[in-house]
Every structure is written in structure tokens, then in C-alpha cells.
Amino acid sequence: MSPVRTIPSARVSAYHVPVLLAEIESLLTGATTILDCTLGGGGHTAALLERGMRVTGIDRDPRALASARERLADFERAGQFRALLGNYAALSDAGLAYAEHFGGILLDLGVSSHQFDDLSRGFTFREGAPLDMRMGDDSEFDAAELLNTIDEVDLSALLRAYADEPRAARLAREIVRRRSRRPFATADDLVDAIRAVLGPRSGAPDFARVFQAVRIAVNDELAGLERALPLLRDRLEPNGVLAIISYHSGEDRLVKNAFRDWSASCICPPKLMMCACRGVALGETLTKRPVSAGDVETEGNPRARSARLRAWKRAV
Ligand SMILES: C[S@@+](CC[C@H](N)C(=O)[O-])C[C@H]1O[C@@H](n2cnc3c(N)ncnc32)[C@H](O)[C@@H]1O
Fold first, then answer.
1. Which residues constitute the domain of residue 282?
2. What is the pLDDT of residues 23-62, one digit of tens each?
3. How far apart are CA 128 and CA 268, in angstroms?
């Protein structure tokens, strides 16, 4: 009889299948302490804990945090894992001491499959879903409030910037027209407005794009990431690695530009005669191109299709 193969718990949770797991494990190999800024179902964290690393996990969603703590209870009891409720853009509010630094920091952006599949959370465009989309209690408004109150011009700008929607102005006008008759309350209201503007041939990819744009606004995702990037960089130990998986072109652009700037020895505008900036590179980009999931992974986990992984290493 062949020996029983143990399957690490990271690979068996139904909550969320971790994306680009082997690549993350390989990039963070040298680290002994990890900050997982987007703990979610704890999939990446579980794999890193199984490699003997110490992990601090943060999530702004109390339900995600509770579920990950249950899964990782043995590691928490052993003092190898701790979970903090909060936003990675405000680490000290989440209870992280200013002096704490890490050999590896991970961000796996967006929402988990579990959050998405839970109709009551309102991330999905499935029939009857409430227009909520808040990841945690720290969002100032939910999706219904946003869609029912936002100014038409701002809504159009939001749809263009976050959803790349060419008919953003028409869609914004249609939403404002419809909400004046009856406030938006469920996913169906938004889907009907999209269909009315994009036509009967519009479908899931269009709904997904627009819903993702609204979610990004509700959770202040892009501005939060932009604020957080330099703060997270400064939480790295010398030689520490920051690894970020994005699922939206706006997120990936922010990460790419930040890594490029931090890796340049001079960031002065070209017109300046003499260098007036810090004059040294802060570190190096480890991924010259974004890493994507291969065919085998995307076949098993369609969510991995849009994933783009970039990593940066702090200098000594
Ligand atoms: C894609 S999931 C992470 C999945 C996780 N890597 C795993 O393998 O199970 C993203 C998680 O990050 C959380 N999140 C997103 N933005 C956040 C933020 N600004 N601060 C803290 N948590 C955040 C979400 O609530 C969600 O649980």
C-alpha cells in the first residue's frame, strides 16, 4: 500500500482557494516573520505557517477574521499566528506596534470567494442580492447609499475610472433617472439599469465590471492601496519582500508605479539640473513582468484568471 499523502490545510479550505500560492511561497521563502494584510480565509497564511513562519494576519472583515482564526487555532495557541481586525492602510489602528517590521508582507487584494458567494454581503449581481458590498464596518456607506446619493457627474467619473465603461455618462444618467422614481435597493436595480443602457446583449462580464467599480468605491480600495504602499514598504526588514496580487488594472498600475519609483536611484523630474531626491534606490523589483496564473491553476480556479502578482525587495 502506498503511504498516505498529507494534504496541507492551505489547499483544502472551501472558503477560498489561495491564488498563485506556489509563487507566493517561493517569493517569501527567506522570511521568518510575515504580515498578511488580507488574511481572508487564511489560505496563503496557512501555507506559510506550515513552513514554520510566524504570521500576523489582518482583515477588515470581522467574519473573515473569525473564520480564519478558527481554521488556524492551533497555530494561534502555539503563538505562531495572531489575527488583527483592521485596515492594512491603518496598521497602527489595527493594533500593530510602530516598531514591528516583517521579512515578508503579502497583499491579495479584493474580496474572497466566500464573501462573493454570500448573497447577503451584496458583492454579487445575483437576483435579490442587497446592494451592500461593504467589506467591513469601517466603510462609510454601502452600495445602495452610494448609488442613491452620488452626483451624476461623479458617478460617471467613477464608472469610467474603475470600470473602464465607455458609456459611463449614459449609465450614470440612467441610474439617476431610475433612482428618482424608486431608490436602488437590490442588485436587480443596477443590473436593469446596465441592461437598459448597454442593451439586451449585455451580460455577466458587463455586470461584473460595473459591480466591481461600485465595490471599489464603497471600500475606498484604490485610495487605500495608494496610501498604504509606502507605509507597508517601511514595515519591511532589510531584504524583506513585499508581494502583491491585484485583480484590477487600477490596482496593478499603482503597484507597478510604486515599485518602479522605489527601485530607481533618482526620482527627480528630468528637467532638474542636479539630483535633489534621495539619490539611492530603496530596493529592487523582483518581478520584471507581472506573474500570472498558468492554465492548470485557472482551470481549477477561474478567479485566478485576472490575478497579477508583483514583488519588490527592500535593500539592506
Ligand atoms: C482575496 S481575499 C484574501 C484571501 C486569502 N489570501 C486566502 O488565501 O484565503 C481578500 C481579503 O482581504 C480583505 N481586505 C481587502 N481590503 C482590505 C483592507 N484594506 N484591509 C484589510 N483587509 C482587507 C477582504 O476582506 C478579504 O477577506
1. 9-114+222-314
2. 999 999 999 999 999 999 999 999 999 999 999 999 999 9
3. 52
